[in-house]
Amino acid sequence: MRVIAGRYKGRVLKTVPDLSVRPATDRVKSAIFNVLQSRVDWSAATVLDLFAGSGSIGIEAMSRGAAKCVFVEQSRSALAFLKQNIDTVGAGSGALVVAGDVFGFLRTAHKRYEAVFADPPYALENLNDLPNIIFGAGVVAEEGYLIIEHPAGHVFTPGPAWETAVEKTYGRTCVSFFVHTRAPQ
């Protein structure tokens, strides 16, 4: 696994050796950032990486110019690799690692982010409610995006606060991009 573009391009990132963390493949990461390329001004963006694992998505955003990224991860083994990866690329001053539960973090979060990434376990019990929980927490900026990596075939029940902007499927993985519901013109 490596950083695919930007100032940290080519740097190798490490992850836990077991299957407890499922890092985004280079193909999926590339697709995510191709969709966001013309939609997010990375030079002004702050990013939230939920279920961060190794941190590869948040680090990729920082590599492309995001000034700040908050990484939220609960697994102790994943946290060790996450911190090591941040040190490896030299992103320490712009990175904040929160060791804890994503849902606990969201209950107390007060900041808004231009890009919120979530790569939850595919078997997450409340996966279908995740967009409602995240938009309900108020962490997605008004013109921001929520990006969730999830199993192909999973369909999120539309919520009142958000709508699907883009959806891309790559084999058994799907990436959905959500935005705030726009008022009809």
Give an overview of the whole structure.
The chain is an alpha/beta fold and 185 residues long. The protein has a single domain (26-171), classed as 3-Layer(aba) Sandwich (Rossmann fold). Helices cover 25% and strands 28% of the residues. The chain has five helices and seven strands. It has helices spanning 26-36, 56-63, 76-89, 102-108, 130-136, and strands at 46-50, 68-73, 95-99, 113-118, 140-151, 162-170, 173-180. A seven-stranded mixed β-sheet has the order 3-2-1-4-5-7-6. Helix 2 (56-63) links the parallel strand 1 (46-50) and strand 2. The protein is globular, with a radius of gyration of 15 Å.
Secondary structure elements and pairings:
Layout: H1 26-36, E1 46-50, H2 56-63, E2 68-73, H3 76-89, E3 95-99, H4 102-108, E4 113-118, H5 130-136, E5 140-151, E6 162-170, E7 173-180
Parallel strand pairs: 1-2, 1-4, 2-3, 4-5
Antiparallel strand pairs: 5-7, 6-7
